[in-house]
Design brief:
homodimer, mainly alpha, three-stranded antiparallel sheet, 3 strands, globular, DNA-binding
Chain lengths: 149, 149
DNA sequence: TATTGTTATACTCTATAACTATA
DNA sequence: TATAGTTATAGAGTATAACAATA
């Protein structure tokens, strides 16, 4: 294989650029598909964090999800309107609001995780080996996200 | 391992839900990081498509990128302002505009693909085996995207 | 004063609907 | 009439700045 005279591409940078493309496009597709789903991708992401970490304060939640506090205020308000989370004010420090998942929210997560008609699930027409690869990749990318926190 | 009495989760659906989360969060991170970069993720995605398929009409480009024509009008206008693509009107059918990449746009893509200071590249502190896994995963997900077109 | 969260406001990305120019 | 693309407008998601309540 012949390389041009310019700087040789860095393998990690090349992979990163490729991942960036596929992630951008998949995220767009997921957003478009989200209309028929119950919650938006952002809300789903926050709901999952609340399930895993709740009861959790709004501040901690926005830090974990890497959005600014005003954004999390909105997201949580939407989830509360849908009955998927509930908030309670801390008795000792009444500035603090803690969020936890409701049985309805828990059911939604459980249902989503077993729903084949999700956009991605319906497209994952893949072999066992490919499934294993994607599972590993998910773990690696989750680690990438955490390491940036 | 004990399963509850509810519906057993579908493995593909579970994987899809997990991928959805990691893609949503990574896309958000990429968007935030994009401020210091030259173009937004959407513009970068369109620019890559123009590189690969151009000269291409706006209609075909919006179909390939899966956005509506008005969205592509905006994206291409931004890329044109940046001098990364240029348009030319079809001589035979003057309704049609074709877009192609400029040398500046080509240089930007080449540079991006070898730049280690991209958000993802700087985070990809991974082993060769993990790099191989992500490379395979990228290929699988690219196929998933194409199959939905 | 400092901290937690909210409200006000604005920007980006995307969509749908209505329009223009051309065929 | 039909098609390619644009303009007008709106909604989601996010940000920053200013504010309110509490400590």
């Amino acid at each position: 294989m012949v390389r041009s005279a310019t700087t040789p591409p860095d393998v990690d940078a090349e992979l990163a650029a490729r991942l960036r493309l596929v992630i951008t496009r998949l995220a767009r597709r997921l957003r478009q598909q989200a209309n028929e789903a119950d919650v938006t991708p952002s809300q789903y992401s926050a709901l999952s964090a609340v399930e895993r970490l709740g009861p959790i304060t709004l501040g901690d939640l926005s830090a974990v999800e890497r959005v600014q506090p005003p954004s999390m205020t909105r997201i949580v308000a939407a989830l509360e309107d849908l009955g998927l989370v509930e908030r309670e004010v801390d008795a000792r420090d009444r500035r603090v609001a803690r969020v936890k998942i409701t049985p309805i929210g828990q059911r939604l997560l459980n249902r989503t995780r077993s729903r084949k008609d999700l956009y991605l699930a319906s497209r994952l027409n893949i072999s066992p080996a490919e499934r294993a690869t994607l599972t590993e990749a998910a773990a690696i990318l989750e680690r990438v996200l955490e390491s940036g926190e």
